[in-house]
């Protein structure tokens, strides 16, 4: 009986120790969803930790995914006046990453015999999104509207934006804020027409962004 009690005590103490360690680890996480941490000022994207993912239907069988990286941009932010927020984001099309090397080559393939390329061509201009309005919808969410220029065409896009964390980056020591944004666009509105609608014309975009205060 004494051995059983001792064993239970040892298990309990071990559990408490693990819980204590876990609590310490959580306390050390630099970012938190706490709007009081957000500082007003001018921000620049951290291109090493900002991504745009895209998702499109493949012949109606399943969805295909890809990524863009090396993204640059600026943001002016005042937590006391969210609707005055402005941002300007540039996405290099040539950074596109997909598991299939053949598909990547096709996305960046020039047109033949003077014809337009199927997708973006060999030397596409970066896509650019410039905000025109931001409307706060809750403590941590907003709707951002703006103009997207891509593939030589410009059109309106509206995104749902969620605040995902703020704090000091332990590596760069910069005050950092993070956001997740989601939207859906019709790629044919920007002249990317190849194989539509068999390969879906509607493309889901998700942006994971880290901005550092300058």
TrEMBL record:
<feature type="signal peptide">
    <location>
        <begin position="1"/>
        <end position="23"/>
    </location>
</feature>
<dbReference type="InterPro" id="IPR007372">
    <property type="entry name" value="Lipid/polyisoprenoid-bd_YceI"/>
</dbReference>
<dbReference type="InterPro" id="IPR036761">
    <property type="entry name" value="TTHA0802/YceI-like_sf"/>
</dbReference>
<keyword id="KW-0732">Signal</keyword>
<dbReference type="Pfam" id="PF04264">
    <property type="entry name" value="YceI"/>
</dbReference>
<feature type="domain" description="Lipid/polyisoprenoid-binding YceI-like">
    <location>
        <begin position="42"/>
        <end position="212"/>
    </location>
</feature>
<protein>
    <recommendedName>
        <fullName>Lipid/polyisoprenoid-binding YceI-like domain-containing protein</fullName>
    </recommendedName>
</protein>
